[in-house]
Amino acid sequence: MAQVDSLEGDLLVGVRIECPGRWLESGVKHRVEKLFVVQVDIWKSSLLVVTLETYSDAWLTMDTRDREQPEVYAENAPRLATALEEISALFGAAPTPGDPNRHATPTETGFEDPMVEGFSYDDSWGTFEVAARSRLLRSRIPTSEDEYQEITDHPVRYFTIQRDEQTLGYIWASIGDEAAGYEPRTAAGESAFEAGAEWLLRLRAAHSQGLSALAALSWAAQSPPRPEIGLVVEDTPQEAPSLDALEELSGRY
């Protein structure tokens, strides 16, 4: 605020900070690289607006896949309520809840109970979030027709990608057709997408060599371009019953 006061003219200065944190499930702490975002907007010393955004469904009685989670809610919602109370005390005013969205309705102490009326969509995760992750990931690489199919109805085999003991995502290939790709681990934040873009380019290189999807999975795992994008954890691939199940894993934990 002192720096803003020294500026000339009518200027609005904004600061946006991504905050990591942990949410609880059955007493286990799960780290999320982007649990909250704090946005501070300052117009001289006469206006100060602080916005708190959350990127987790741990505060809800139903998760964003429309499943009840009373235990998760009981462990986490009081933590959010306490934080909002402390923020209110700090600023001397109660928070103004944001607008409702397809997941929940914000309140001064957290969120309304979505179990009362349910979500607007039965499969919000599959309809919106998975598609948004895919667009964000693929926006980082040039478009090309020289690549494998993005979706499959068959079971998939996959390798876990880690860097510095943090899971970034999962590189996968279909067992029944020529589909392959990479699922970013949502909780890893920006790092998951940065690494994922290069793993997709590895798969694209395998496709240009004429390799099948499963052969491409093994080839990419055996020859990662450099450690910065992560390394394969397993010696042999794991198997998921469907791509949906792998997307669920990458989005949940």
Task: Give a short overview.
The chain has 253 residues and is an alpha+beta fold. Helix content is 32%, strand content 27%.
What is the secondary structure topology, with strand pairs?
Elements: H1 2-5, E1 12-25, E2 28-43, E3 47-54, H2 70-91, E4 106-107, E5 110-111, H3 124-138, E6 156-163, E7 166-174, E8 180-184, H4 190-208, H5 213-222, E9 231-232, E10 238-240, H6 243-252
Antiparallel strand pairs: 1-2, 2-3, 4-5, 6-7, 6-9, 6-10, 7-8
Question: What does this protein structure show overall?
Answer:
The protein is an alpha+beta fold and 253 residues long. The chain folds into 2 domains: 2-111, no CATH class; 143-252, no CATH class. 32% of the residues lie in helices and 27% in strands. The protein has helices at 2-5, 70-91, 124-138, 190-208, 213-222, 243-252, and strands at residues 12-25, 28-43, 47-54, 106-107, 110-111, 156-163, 166-174, 180-184, 231-232, 238-240. Strand 1 (12-25) and strand 2 form a beta hairpin. Helix 4 packs across helix 5 (213-222). The chain is globular.
N-to-C CA distance: 37 Å
Largest beta-sheet details: 5 strands, antiparallel
Q: Helices and strands, in N-to-C order?
A: HEEEHEEHEEEHHEEH
| Number of contiguous helices | 6
Count of beta strands: 10
Quickly give the structural class: alpha+beta
Give the CA-based shape: globular
* Radius of gyration of CA atoms, rounded to a whole number: 21 Å
Tally of domains: 2
Give the percentage of residues in beta strands. 25-35%
Overall mean pLDDT: 89
- Low-confidence runs (pLDDT<50, min 5 residues)? none
